[in-house]
Design brief:
This is Siderophore ABC transporter substrate-binding protein CdtB. Keywords: Signal, Transport. It holds the Pfam family Peripla_BP_2. It is found in: Cell envelope. Belongs to the bacterial solute-binding protein 8 family. With 345 residues, this protein is an alpha/beta fold. Helix content is 34%, strand content 14%. A hairpin with a 5-residue loop joins β1 and β2. α7 runs parallel beside α13. The protein is globular, with a radius of gyration of 20 Å.
Amino acid sequence: MKTRPIAALAPLAALPLGLILAACGTTDADADDKPAPKAADSAECAADKTTTSSGPVKLTDSYGRTVELDEPAQRVAVLEWQQVEDVLSLCVTPVAVADVEGYTTWDTAETLPEGVTDVGTRGEPNLETLFGTDPDLVIVEAYTPDDEILKQLAKYDVPVLATKGADAKDPIATMIDTFELIARATGREERAKVVVDDFNAHLAAAKEKVAAVDAGRFVYFDGWIQGGNVSIRPFGQGSLMGELGEELGLENAWTGEVDPAYGLGQTDIEGMSEVGDATFFSTGTVDPEGDVNAALAENAVWQKIPAVAEGRAHAFPAGVWTFGGPRSAQQVIDAYVDLLTASSK
């Protein structure tokens, strides 16, 4: 299975082995010939009036490591999609990212401009290509202070900002903390405040929209197909999807065991039948390796689960990233509201 965010894998495959880094390949063109990256070219960023701070930067990353820069980072390389989205929300265009095609498929909250160097998969980025883009900061998602990716990148004379992608103790606060950490590294604190304030206002408005709806119990899930069988990954307590749903007044019906970072569980069709009184929500992004929702639609047992039989199983729009930053979270909120209010009519 490829290292990407479906199936039993959280972003960058939250497995004991961490990331396996590949340093093979050819070097990109000389960095001296590369122009400085332009600001992200969305209409919102084109109208952005916030300023970028100047002067030396000294901060502590998500794992207590000190990161020092002579000035806010301008040429950033990013190896995880949440952080790619965050950088773009700050109106900064990265010089390099991992898995451009995957990002554009799974995360539509922010559009990646053309011309950004693709350094390969998130699990096996090409380090020679990465450092050939002459970054002044590499932003990664790590799982422990001694993550393998940090060991590999420490061999290069470029600062590395280690961020925490998730923490089931408070997934929304962790998402915002990561976003604001990247903002400090890039001098985009003013812009970050605009985005965070917008997220909070968006959530407050959404709560009012669904206040009159009998929200009830729910389970959000994604899944994967392996050997012809469908495995299901419920987003339980401590998941970002679960927390956002509960902020809107829903009750997360999945109470099974989940991992301590992403709040993700694992079950099968029979397991989902145990929470069939809950409304089902699922990812609408079709995995190139297998359409889970299509496979479920052909399963007789699945069709008999009350949530499915009664028309209470809803797919989100494609491209809504379940492990994203504030802009993805707004898409999640909109999807919940649209589906809840439509089903209540």
